[in-house]
Specification:
Layout lengths: L7 E7 L2 H11 L5 E2 L9 E5 L3 E7 H7 L4 H6 L7 E5 L3 H10 L4 E7 L4 E7 L5 E7 L1 H5 L3
Parallel strand pairs: 1-4, 5-8
Antiparallel strand pairs: 2-3, 3-4, 6-7, 7-8
Length: about 140
């Protein structure tokens, strides 16, 4: 049985759910939910995104369930070739919080010519995250 209502999902392995939760729910203010799991089932976090769910599971739980994957986690860095894009509010505050936490920023906050504030950073597990906020003048123009 799926732990979310979305038809499709992407599962990402993370080091610690509490750190992932602090980043995505605390700093980015995304509607991340902790799972309600059956006894003995691994805990996880879910971000339901209109038909697609992003599911975060601790790496140790994945390896316990699928031991054959254990060596692969040490062979390949997380996030290579994967980029997560999110539209956020208060990107300036988010940028400050990411800097304060000492997380790596790939491209600092910048205003794009098409009316979007954008920054690129890495989450605590090394997944590339692109954040953008539509500027007010673009919102008013109905774009």
């Amino acid at each position: 049985m799926k732990a979310h209502r979305a038809r499709h999902s992407i599962q990402l392995a993370v080091t610690q759910l509490v750190v992932t939760e602090a980043f995505y729910a605390g700093i980015l203010e995304l509607p991340l939910q902790r799972s309600l799991t059956a006894a003995g089932a691994p805990d996880h976090l879910m971000l339901d995104m209109d038909g697609m769910a992003l599911v975060f599971v601790e790496e140790d739980d994945v390896v316990r369930a699928h031991p054959v994957l254990g060596n692969r986690f040490s062979m390949f860095p997380r996030g290579i070739g994967l980029t997560l894009h999110f539209e956020v509010k208060d990107i300036e505050g988010i940028s400050d919080a990411i800097s304060e936490e000492g997380l790596e920023i790939l491209y600092p906050l910048e205003i794009k010519p098409y009316g979007v504030k954008e920054m690129w950073c890495f989450d605590p597990d090394g997944y590339l995250v692109v954040l953008d906020e539509i500027m007010e003048n673009r919102k008013k123009a109905g774009q």
